[in-house]
Amino acid sequence: MRQRFFITSTGTGIGKTFITAALIRQARGLGKSVAAYKPIISGYDPIHPSESDTGVLLQSLGETITQATIDRMSPWRFSTALAPSMAAQTEKVDLDFESVVAHGRRAIEEKDEIVFIEGVGGVMVPVDARHTVLDWIEKLGIQAILVTGSYLGTLSHTLTALSVLEQRKVPIFAIIVNESDDSPVPLSATLGELSRWTRLPLVPVKRRPPGDEDGEIAELRPLLG
Fold it and tell me: 179 with 204: CB under 8 angstroms?
């Protein structure tokens, strides 16, 4: 069965890449053919590509980090750690939204059983002067996986993201609640409250000890099985 997912989140630093990489490893462990892309990346350091989100995803795919694989994974790269619209303006680069959408459509048409497209920032981050990540997801017409955290304030951010996705009739496959560092709110409490507001699948991911970020995440196992 072919599955296509757009990985988005409630904001920056929530753990989209961590979750996307884990899902890639999960799918490969199940013997499925997988392709993944992070078409737009901000804050990219070409001197240390292995430390970037692009490098993390390439490693999860078992691919060597080369200029060719970087170009394929992330054709739009900005060194400035800003929203794509602002980074492109700062670096005087033309970021064409329709080209980004066309890239995604080609990815969706690939023969692999599973294709992941990881967004940039949160659902409402501007891609250019007139389009957001939400517009990008809607144009591709694929299922979204929403990654959120357990930090104080996540309930409002998560329900807001859900609201705009549902208004655009974007199909939501699951909400992954990635436990936030140093959160005063227990993960279980966040899940319990979110369950009062949505009937979508809620998948908790407990915080990983340092050095174990690449291990299997059992909680994600049912999503791709």
Answer: yes
Catalytically annotated residue among 38, 92, 139, 206:
38
The four Cα atoms 125, 173, 62, 181 give a dihedral, to 10 degrees, of 60
Give the separation between CA 37 and CA 58, rounded to whole angstroms: 9
Q: What CATH number has the domain spanning 3-224?
A: 3.40.50.300
Tell me if residue 169 is catalytic. no
For residue 161, give the nearest of 27, 153, 130 by alpha carbon: 153
pLDDT value, residue 182? 86
Contact by Cβ (8 Å): 26, 221: yes
- pLDDT tens digits for range 80-123: 999 999 999 999 999 999 999 999 999 999 999 999 999 999 99
Which parts of the chain have pLDDT scores under 50?
none
191/29 Cα distance (integer angstroms): 27
What's the rounded Cα separation, in Å, for the pair 178 and 199?
Answer: 18
**DSSP letter assigned to residue 126:** B
Whether the model clears a pTM of 0.90, i.e. scores above it, the answer is: yes
